[in-house]
Every structure is written in structure tokens, then in C-alpha cells.
Amino acid sequence: MRYKQTMTDQPNIPTHLRTHTFHGLAPGPALLVLGAVHGNEICGTQAIMQLLSDIDCGRLAIERGSVTFVPIANPLAYQLKRRFGDRNLNRNMAPSAIPQDFEDRLANVLCPLLDTHDVLLDLHSFHTGGAPFVMIGPQNNTGTLEPFALAAEEMQLALHTGAPRIVEGWLDTYARGVQRRAAAAADNISARSQTLVTNPNYGVGTTEYMRSRGGYAVTLECGQHDDPAGISVARHAILQALGLLGITHAQPSAPNTTPEILRLIDVTDKAHAGDTFSREWRSFDAVTAGDVIGVRHDGAEVKAQGDGFVVFPNPRGEVGQEWFYFAQRRV
Question: Which CATH number does 17-258 carry?
């Protein structure tokens, strides 16, 4: 159920964002840790709450720089126990002079918060089964889409999360999907949704925004939404980041030196509510060229364009938005 844009008569709509900041007494970098950017992805929230208790009880000491925890980055989505309130907070992340929805208002608080930090760890989970993975940005470049100069530092953070798999290539792959989406100009989704998903900036989420502001960031997908092990994955990653950055005195454990590195190369949208997958795919299920991944409502088969992997399959995806991604190993 969507809420009215006038918040005065909607007492259950969250009116604030709760953050927790700790400053060490020695200089150092500023780390931001986000949980529940998507309201049904709460392993990060739970891990953050554990660590807040550890800090309060003296079991964990913040000594250098600072760390800010946001256990529930989207309180409306969290309250509704779903991915978003009005729209996906992790898309079109930018300040809005005239906010159109709840997530626009959140972005107007979160973006200035991101601006004041050097490093971001964004904690997520996924709806299909599979092992944890971490998403990174581009290699160093001076291009126009996502210029970047801190790829080495970002890779070190990714390796220290302990995730067995690293995924890259998000924004340029999403941009190609935007071009196709705009050309199709679907008539069966709302004008607001159409405006968002055909806007190249809609691919910009928390990590992309952080890179655009001179920092670096990773998104850690800690496991399936309901897997209790995801809390431990998130907790480990936070402690590793704190140690790696020297914010706590404890040295991080050794990084993963043999991760599988995959690159997203294409995205396929859901064109009709009747589009169905050929099987119950999980992220990183392997396919060979020509394998049938899904069937359109008119019977047309959607086949793998080469040997690779299905990533982020979403059988409940919205029409006109991402249905699944296709990835291949980095060469």
C-alpha cells in the first residue's frame, strides 16, 4: 500500500533516520556501514545491532577515525517488510530539490551523510539461494560513466570481506539496459516508474554515489534473506573493515586471495507478467551458450548468449525492470 505524498495525515510513515557515530580520539578514515537499504534484507541490521552492543559494553573499541552505523537505511521499507517503500532506494541515489517520494526524502539525508565519509560498506542479502558475494566498481579510469582512481583500495576491502566471489561491471551493464528500456518505452508501467528506469542515473546506488564523491565502496550480499548465517557474514565483514582501516586496533584476518571474479555483461528485462523462467535459477548457476533461461509470455525462448552465469534472477520482478543478469569470468 502506497502512502500519500502529504505526510501530515500519515502518522505511521517514518519521520527520521537513526544513525550511530563513534569517533576515535586519534585521526583516521571515516567508515559508513549501511543495513536494510532494502527493507527485507536485515542481516546487516542484525549484525550492526550486535556490534553496537559490543561497543557500548566495551568489547569493541573505536580508536582512530570514525565509524557511522545506519542499521535501517530505509525505515519505511523495513516497516513494510519489503524491498522498498515507494521505489528502490538503491537506484537514482542523488539529492532531490523537489522530492517525489519517500526514498527521495531519504536520499536527501543519506547523500550528505555519504559525502562526509571516505569508505562505504553496504550490507545486503538476496532472495534466491547461493553463496555470499561482493560487488565492486570499475577499474581505474577517466571515462564519463564512472571515473575512478581507488580500485586497489576497493579491491582490498572486497577481499577482506571473505566473500568467495567478486562481481564487477554493474553500472555499464545497467546503462546498456537503460538504453534498451528507453527504446522500448513500455506502455504497461507507470509514468513515474518509466521515468526512473529509463534514466541512466537510476543505476546509481549507494556505492556508485560514494565513488562519485571521491570515496570507495563495496556492496556485500551476505546470503539468502532468511539464512541466519548471513548475520555472521555481515558481522565478519564489518570487523574486517574496521581493522583494515585501522579504526580498531585488531588486525584483520587474512584476505581471500583466490576469489572467483565475474563480470556482468548484460541484463534482460521482464517484458510481461507472463514471462517465466525455465527452472528455479539461483545466482551464479552456470549456463552454456544456447541454454534456455526463460520463456516469454508469447512462447519465445530467452537463451544464454554464451557460456556464463545467471545472476540476480528475479521471478517476481516488475514488468519493465531487471529479470536477470548474465555474467562471465573476468579474462
Answer: 3.40.630.10
